[in-house]
Amino acid sequence: MNLPLDRLTNVTGFGMITGADGYLFRPTQVEEFYEILQLAKSTGRQITMRGSGRSYGDANIGSESILLDITRFNQILSFDPQTGVIDCQAGVTIEQLWRHTLESSFWPPVVSGTMFPTMGGALGMNLHGKNAFKAGPIGNHVIEIEVLFPNGEHSVLTQSDPLFFQVISTAGLLGIILRVKLQMHQINSGDVRVLPLSIPNWDAQFKTFENFRNEADYMVSWIDCFARGKSAGRGDFHAAYYMDEPSQFPITLRPEHQDLPDTIMGFFPKSVVWRFIKRLNNRTGMRFTNWAKHTSGKILGNGKPHPLSLVGFNFLLDYVPNWRNSYLPGGFIQYQSFVPAEQAPRVFAQQLELQQAAKLESFLGVMKRHVPDNFLFSHGVDGYSLALDFKITKTNKESVWKLAHQMNELVLAAGGRFYLAKDSTLTPDHFTQSIGPESFQTYAQLKLRLDPDSILTSDLARRLHLDPRD
Amino acid sequence: MSLKLIGTKAIVIGASSGIGAELAKQLAEGGALVATIARRTDRLQLLSDRYPERVFPFAHDVNNIAEVPDLFQKCTDTLTGLDLIIYCSGVMPQVGPHEYSTDKDIDMVNVNMSGAVAWLNCAATRMEGTGHGSIIGIGSVAGDRGRSGNPVYAASKAFMHTYMEALRNRLARKGVKVVTIKPGPVQTEMTAALGISNAMPVEKAAQLILHYKDRTGEHYLSPVHRIIFYIIKRIPSPIFRRLNLK
Q1: Which among A401, A468, A417, A448 is positioned nearest to A137, based on CA atoms?
Q2: Could you say which of A5, A10, A63 has the minimum Cβ distance to residue B125?
Q3: Residue of B71, B130, B174 to mutate when probing chain A, most A C-beta within 10 A
Q4: In chain A, what residues touch B77 (CB-CB under 8 Å)?
Q5: Residue B153 is a catalytic residue
Q6: How close B122 comes to chain A (CA, Å)?
Q7: Which of A6, A7, A21 comes nearest B81 by C-beta?
Q8: Which residues of B touch A9 (CB under 8 A)?
């Protein structure tokens, strides 16, 4: 039996390095999910789950599969302004969440650097934010999920079910999350107090994170990957704190206060900014940009706290619209590794040295603090993560992959982990080793039981052999 | 292996002989994945035995238009995608100077035209959605004018040129490459009986076709043809018919 050819579409991951053609389905009703599962079985096709397509690599694409896009399955079903519990369909985005709840003094407990991911995608990847050291991944704040499994089972799972911790984090490969009940975080102000600190080197980076760990609500540090020697690891650290406001209905809680302006300084349209970044988006340009950012961070506002909207602080990636286009035509990958605290200083320093030796410095480096969690494909370690962006061109792909594999070895030797939403370079062995053979075995058994016909897949799953029948 | 072809996912229709067979061979040698399609699968077997992991033979008679949509999807499934489709099936029976054989002519219409439409429509539907890929149709210098030698062959190739041009005008803006190749005589089974002395070796023709695979437009395979047919196309009809060109 055939699928209609006119459903075909080509989609890429957020990094745009590879695309895949799939048969696009965008259901709005639960019954349609059942029908699509049935269709997959009768046509012998696999299904790739896709939300907003914010995963950088190949987790949201699947060649010749049914592309089950949940972005139209996006109704908020209920919200209790007293308790902050929100019940929503899986296609609801982080943006929908905060717009719906902010004026009742609630903010999503965990958000990524962009507000566009869907809840289904967020839980598939179990994403984290700049408050990972306190709040863990988003799965920690979920009260229940409703899941449709390819074997036909349809269950509501809570934190008392082991399966809850297995469906969340496994990249949409065990079941289709249909509905999510989430505990939102109560706040008193729509602003956070941000404290910027200019950091001279790796030592100071790690010390600062440990110093602020108990008091700050959010922590993140930007790393200049071009700096070497004594300055290696220099960058700008930001701690942020939730604020109190005396007012009953603070103006900061209104979406109008949160909305990012679409111009810079009131006149320069942001929509064209990526075209200027594109000019700078090469080794020389980024060496300069990183230097300029560090220098200005040292001179301006260093150590001076200031208020900033929650949106402005959290969704830095949305500040310049379409910024990823500055990486065209080849696209880019993000490489993020998670390393236990005692090993992180050594591993990150070595990762930077490897990049510099290969003349492939990451144009952007971001460091965060994490804590362990109970999810099956957890990327949470008691330690740090370093996220790196690498531009991919016609000529450098092989050397970037070689560099990534060298960095993978360092991470694995240190007992570190990886994050499937960011991954493009892992091999099946790397991945199994990082989560441990036991976790992988558990996953393999679940996959056989819950997905007996190998329906759920993705190009990432195929690359990492996440189906025991492969 | 050539870097350009590694991983390319290609369908070649009419891959058992002539230009199609050579294209399939060069694609496979270059590291591409190829679905080879022909009536005579025994002829496809040789190549797939040599590259079992890259060459996938399918038996199909292009007269059997009804089975094309299914088979097309089977091919794209096997290849896990589609970057390139080349329609090479074509027949050119010997036609005498005073012969008007409807059997022979309808056969040409079916193989050279209807089959092409059936296959390339599938590819066009797919590529309009996915926004990438190349469609190559093999026309001929014979299609540039209605010479007296083989009226329906010439007409079928002229059809190909116009059909491909129209596809190009629909799909180019979607990012799809639509390429018309106009070979002159090439050393194949089809031309063997004609006894043409200066026919182009088939290896050379296939190389050139793959060279043009991402270049939207019409391409002659030799610069001489480009010049000659530029002139021939412009000869006024009253003069043209007095020249008695076969």
Answers
A1: A417
A2: A5
A3: B130
A4: 64
A5: yes
A6: 7
A7: A21
A8: 129-130
From the list A2, A10, A19, which residue is nearest B70 (CB)? A2
Are residues A95 and A49 located together in one domain of the fold? no
The DSSP element (H or E) to which A36 belongs, if any, is helix A30-43
Task: Identify whether B4 is part of a domain.
Answer: no
Quickly count: other Cβ atoms within 10 Å of residue B239's Cβ.
8
Closest approach of chain A CAs to the CA of B172, in angstroms?
16
Does B1 have pLDDT greater than 60?
Answer: no
Contact B129 A6 (CB under 8 A): yes
Closest C-alpha to A69, from A39, A43, A90, A40: A90
| Predicted local confidence at residue A161, as pLDDT | 97
Closest CA to A47 of A94, A91, A3: A3
Among residues B87, B153, B163, B220, the one annotated as catalytic is: B153
CA distance B74 to chain A (A): 9
User: Residue B51: inside a domain, yes or no?
Assistant: yes
Query: B222 in a domain, yes or no?
Result: yes
Give the gap in angstroms from C-alpha B4 to the nearest C-alpha of chain A: 12
The pLDDT value given to residue B184:
94
Cβ neighbours of B8 in A, within 8 Å: none
A21, B125: Cβ pair inside 8 Å? no
A235 and A205 within one domain = yes
Going by C-beta distance under 8 Å and a sequence separation of 6 or more, which residues neighbour residue A256? none
- Domain presence at residue A58: yes
* Closest of B176, B79, B78, B80 to residue B123, by C-alpha: B176
| Percentage, residues of chain A above pLDDT 70 | 100
Q: How many domains, chain A?
A: 3
Alpha-carbon distance of A126 to B209, in angstroms, equals: 49
pLDDT of amino acid B245: 82
Tell me, what's the pLDDT at A1? 63
Contacts of A20 in chain B (CB under 8 A): 81
Do A134 and A46 reside in the same domain of the chain?
no
pLDDT in tens, B227-243: 999 999 999 999 999 99
**DSSP result, B46-60:** HHHHHSTTTEEEEE-
CB contact (8 A) between residue A5 and residue B80: no
For residue B68, give the chain A residue with the closest CA: A2
- A140, A166, A186 - which closes a domain: A186
- The one-letter amino acid at A139: G
Q: Which of A3, A7, A17, A21 to mutate to test the interface with B (most CBs of B within 10 A)?
A: A21
Domain span holding position B131: 9-243
Taking 70 as the pLDDT cut, the residues of chain A under it are 1
**For the segment B79-102, what is each residue's pLDDT rounded down to a tens digit?**
999 999 999 999 999 999 999 999
Are A271 and A374 members of one domain?
yes
In terms of domains, do A282 and A406 share one? yes
- Asked if A8 lies within 8 A of B130 by C-beta distance, the reply is yes
B115-152 residue pLDDT tens: 999 999 999 999 999 999 999 999 999 999 999 999 99
pLDDT band at B2 (very low <50, low <70, confident <90, very high): low
Instruction: Tell me the CATH number at B64.
Output: 3.40.50.720
Of A329, A320, A312, the C-alpha closest to A271 is A320
CATH number of the domain where residue A450 is located: 3.30.43
Query: A231 and A138 share a domain?
Result: no
Pairing of strands A142-148, A176-183: antiparallel
CA distance linking residue A314 with residue A218, whole number of Å: 9
Distance from CA of A26 to the nearest CA of B (A): 15
Of the candidates B70, B76, B129, the beta carbon closest to that of A9 is on: B129
Gap between the Cα atoms of A124 and A139, Å rounded: 9
| Residue A177 three-state SS | strand
The DSSP secondary-structure symbol of A389 reads: E
Contacts of A3 in chain B (CB under 8 A): 73
* ipTM, 2 dp: 0.85
Question: Total structural domains in chain B?
Answer: 1
Domain extent, residue A154, equals: 76-186
